[in-house]
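Box 3.1 A note on notation
Throughout this textbook, protein chains are presented in two layers. The first layer is the amino acid sequence; the second is a token string describing backbone geometry. Keep the layers aligned when reading.
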Amino acid sequence: MATRALVNARVLVDDGFRDDLAVLLDDGGDIAALVPASQARTQADEIDDLAGGWLAPGFIDAQVNGGGGVLFNNDTSVEAIAAIGRAHRRFGTTGFLPTLISDDAEVMARAIDATRAAIAAGVPGVLGVHLEGPYIAPARKGTHDAGKFRVPDVAEVAMATSLDNGVTLITLAPEQVPLETIRAMVARGAIVVAGHTAASYEQARAGLDAGMRGFTHLYNAMSPLQGREPGAVGAALEDRGGWCGVIVDGVHVHPGSLRVALAAKPRGKLFLVTDAMPMVGSDDPAFALYGEVITAVDGVVRNAAGALAGSALDMAAAVRNCVRLLGLPLDEAARMASTYPADFLGLGGRCGRIAAGLQADLVLLDESLAVRSTWIAGVREDVA
């Protein structure tokens, strides 16, 4: 018998939100079953009345540079990863990849070791690591330090793909590394995507053919789509199998461009990321990166040169923006924050849906689409 039933909420399942279901959780942290709400009291030891609202799969963020006043580059420790996870959980994120911006090999190795230790210690929500650079293009560097950029040798490829208990996501510029390097990373189990790239359409296509799975923050820091030069954006929009992360904060990408991407890509191939910096979940609007103080002004994060330097976005706000700026129905916006990133990361059999046998990672939204509660492996935390 399931130990607990979640009742009295609209539950997101494959065909949309349903108000006639109860979600049964077992004592191992998984979803035991979905049953008619009328049967909940006969099949569970305890009843949790959610008092309305929207119950969706917990949000999954594949690009989290920081949160709670912590930047992963500045503190590659288990404690830092846990602090980042706590900061984002209050905004519905139940799974995330701590993301390291281009840095030295020694810092990368420490980040991977910390991620391995965090997963082994059961730090809530940690799914793996995202290495954003340093194998990227100086012409599309954004706030990355071009002095860190390099082409990895065989030993560095082995180091960058050495995480053995979680997902490794690597953002690179396909024109900056040999295609054989992409193939080697993929063969070692990494998910490789294009980002911060000045690639031509042909170079981006060659990267996809070599095993790249998609594109990091579509439109941002990549060669644009033009009539005679489709660029990386053109390759991303054309490719039917490739996934694209998008930052829906109303700043990084114009809503019209996002609607074009939604029209061009097959359903399920666009997913939400935050590219979040330390001010998410913190009262401090400033942080240091590469020795430079970066400050969010009116919610927009830029460096001294005026380049966007990540975001102050959280996943709940990204979902709301999909509804309010893009006109998406809530069920599809929620899937872009949960189901689709889970599939992109190869974790669809573990999380990203409310279905029997999957981990009980959930988020409860109120009528204003603010987060009321989250569950990670069945453990509930309410937002104060």
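The radius of gyration is 20 Å. The chain has two domains: 2-52+354-382, 58-344.
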